[in-house]
What we know:
By secondary structure, the protein is mostly helical. It is built from three helices and no strands. The chain starts with a helix and ends in a 23-residue tail after the last helix.
Amino acid sequence: MNETLKLVLAGGAGVMLGAVFFGGLWWTVRKGVASKQPALWFLGSLLLRMGIALAGFYFVSGGQWRRLALCLVGFVMARLVIARLVVTRPTRKKLSPPDPGGRPCALLPIR
Length: 111
């Protein structure tokens, strides 16, 4: 396999690692906020996501800095995509009416 193909695959692996990491973070926040023990969700998720990401970077790099760099670029690209998906797909349907100061109060339930 030539070096260019290995570099492209390293970038693709970085995108997949980033999707798992940041997608898992998004899922954890949704589950953890509704949980009675959110600290366990966040700690467990952090350890699992970091373990997967670090192991993935280690194996993808193969000891070569170029592969590691492209894997990191793919990881950051996945972060941008996941952040864009989460921002364009809000978790709340409506905001509550504005407070007397004119600012919307997103934390108050709508009755």
